Amino acid sequence: MNDFFKIISGSTDEAGNNVYTLELNPAHDVFNGHFPGKPVVPGVMTLMMIRKCAEKAKGLGETRISYVKDAKYIAPIKPDGRKVVVKFTIDDTLGIKADVVSEDGEDYTKVRMTLTKEA
Q1: Which residue in 75, 82, 102, 104 sits closest to 26, CA to CA?
Q2: How far apart (Å, rounded) are the C-alpha atoms in residues 38 and 43?
Protein backbone atom coordinates (compact mmCIF):
# COMPACT_ATOMS: atom_id res chain seq x y z
CA MET A 1 0.00 0.00 0.00
CA ASN A 2 3.07 2.23 0.06
CA ASP A 3 2.31 3.84 -3.29
CA PHE A 4 -1.45 4.34 -2.76
CA PHE A 5 -0.95 8.03 -1.95
CA LYS A 6 1.77 10.62 -1.51
CA ILE A 7 1.85 13.37 1.11
CA ILE A 8 2.28 16.67 -0.74
CA SER A 9 2.34 18.94 2.30
CA GLY A 10 1.67 19.01 6.02
CA SER A 11 1.18 21.93 8.37
CA THR A 12 -0.66 23.16 11.44
CA ASP A 13 -3.35 25.81 11.01
CA GLU A 14 -4.07 28.74 13.34
CA ALA A 15 -6.59 26.62 15.32
CA GLY A 16 -3.99 23.92 16.00
CA ASN A 17 -5.34 21.40 13.47
CA ASN A 18 -2.94 19.27 11.47
CA VAL A 19 -3.64 19.76 7.76
CA TYR A 20 -2.14 17.31 5.27
CA THR A 21 -2.62 17.41 1.51
CA LEU A 22 -2.40 14.08 -0.31
CA GLU A 23 -2.20 13.00 -3.91
CA LEU A 24 -3.80 9.65 -4.81
CA ASN A 25 -2.21 7.22 -7.25
CA PRO A 26 -5.03 6.52 -9.74
CA ALA A 27 -3.06 3.59 -11.19
CA HIS A 28 -2.93 1.72 -7.86
CA ASP A 29 -4.15 -1.89 -7.94
CA VAL A 30 -6.80 -1.25 -5.27
CA PHE A 31 -8.87 0.60 -7.87
CA ASN A 32 -8.98 -2.45 -10.16
CA GLY A 33 -11.39 -4.14 -7.78
CA HIS A 34 -13.03 -1.14 -6.14
CA PHE A 35 -14.79 -0.65 -8.58
CA PRO A 36 -13.87 -1.51 -12.18
CA GLY A 37 -14.73 1.43 -14.42
CA LYS A 38 -15.90 3.61 -11.49
CA PRO A 39 -13.01 3.60 -9.00
CA VAL A 40 -13.46 4.87 -5.44
CA VAL A 41 -11.23 4.78 -2.38
CA PRO A 42 -12.26 1.94 -0.04
CA GLY A 43 -13.30 3.13 3.44
CA VAL A 44 -10.48 1.22 5.11
CA MET A 45 -7.96 3.04 2.88
CA THR A 46 -9.39 6.37 4.05
CA LEU A 47 -8.72 5.30 7.65
CA MET A 48 -5.18 4.26 6.65
CA MET A 49 -4.54 7.70 5.09
CA ILE A 50 -5.60 9.38 8.34
CA ARG A 51 -3.43 7.01 10.39
CA LYS A 52 -0.36 7.63 8.22
CA CYS A 53 -0.81 11.41 8.43
CA ALA A 54 -1.10 11.20 12.24
CA GLU A 55 2.05 9.05 12.45
CA LYS A 56 3.95 11.65 10.46
CA ALA A 57 2.54 14.64 12.37
CA LYS A 58 3.43 13.16 15.77
CA GLY A 59 6.57 11.23 14.76
CA LEU A 60 4.97 8.05 16.09
CA GLY A 61 6.52 5.36 13.96
CA GLU A 62 4.22 2.46 13.14
CA THR A 63 0.77 2.35 14.74
CA ARG A 64 -2.43 0.43 14.29
CA ILE A 65 -6.03 1.53 14.56
CA SER A 66 -7.31 0.17 17.85
CA TYR A 67 -10.79 1.71 17.89
CA VAL A 68 -13.09 3.52 15.51
CA LYS A 69 -15.72 5.40 17.48
CA ASP A 70 -17.50 6.58 14.36
CA ALA A 71 -16.86 6.99 10.67
CA LYS A 72 -19.29 8.89 8.50
CA TYR A 73 -18.72 8.50 4.77
CA ILE A 74 -20.41 11.50 3.15
CA ALA A 75 -19.22 11.21 -0.46
CA PRO A 76 -16.95 8.77 -2.28
CA ILE A 77 -13.33 9.74 -2.81
CA LYS A 78 -12.51 9.24 -6.48
CA PRO A 79 -9.04 9.20 -8.02
CA ASP A 80 -10.06 12.13 -10.25
CA GLY A 81 -6.91 14.24 -9.97
CA ARG A 82 -8.13 16.41 -7.10
CA LYS A 83 -5.95 16.48 -4.00
CA VAL A 84 -7.32 15.02 -0.77
CA VAL A 85 -7.01 17.08 2.43
CA VAL A 86 -6.88 15.38 5.84
CA LYS A 87 -7.55 17.83 8.68
CA PHE A 88 -7.25 16.38 12.17
CA THR A 89 -6.41 16.75 15.83
CA ILE A 90 -4.66 14.07 17.84
CA ASP A 91 -4.50 14.03 21.62
CA ASP A 92 -2.02 12.48 24.07
CA THR A 93 -3.98 9.20 24.15
CA LEU A 94 -3.69 9.06 20.33
CA GLY A 95 -7.37 9.85 19.89
CA ILE A 96 -8.01 11.39 16.50
CA LYS A 97 -10.83 13.54 15.21
CA ALA A 98 -10.50 13.94 11.44
CA ASP A 99 -12.25 15.43 8.45
CA VAL A 100 -11.30 14.35 4.95
CA VAL A 101 -12.23 16.74 2.13
CA SER A 102 -11.30 17.48 -1.46
CA GLU A 103 -8.93 20.34 -2.21
CA ASP A 104 -11.96 22.43 -3.18
CA GLY A 105 -13.85 21.66 0.04
CA GLU A 106 -16.15 18.74 -0.81
CA ASP A 107 -16.76 16.72 2.37
CA TYR A 108 -15.76 13.07 2.06
CA THR A 109 -15.43 11.59 5.54
CA LYS A 110 -15.62 12.43 9.25
CA VAL A 111 -13.89 10.05 11.66
CA ARG A 112 -13.16 9.65 15.36
CA MET A 113 -10.70 6.86 16.12
CA THR A 114 -7.84 5.86 18.38
CA LEU A 115 -4.38 4.57 17.46
CA THR A 116 -2.09 2.25 19.38
CA LYS A 117 1.70 2.27 18.97
CA GLU A 118 3.15 -0.94 17.58
CA ALA A 119 5.57 -2.69 19.89
Answers
A1: 82
A2: 15
- Tell me how far apart the alpha carbons of residues 25 and 39 are, in angstroms, rounded to a whole number: 12
Exposure of 48 in the CB half-sphere (CA atoms within 13 A) = 12
Where do the H-state alpha helices sit in 27-89? 30-33, 43-58
For the chain, list the strands marked E by DSSP. Answer: 5-12, 18-24, 63-73, 84-90, 95-102, 107-117
Q: pLDDT tens per residue, the chain (119 residues)?
A: 679 999 999 999 999 999 999 999 999 999 998 888 999 999 999 999 999 999 999 999 999 999 999 999 999 999 999 999 999 999 999 999 999 999 999 999 999 999 999 87
Nearest alpha-carbon partner for 58 in 3, 18, 14, 5 = 18
pTM equals 0.96
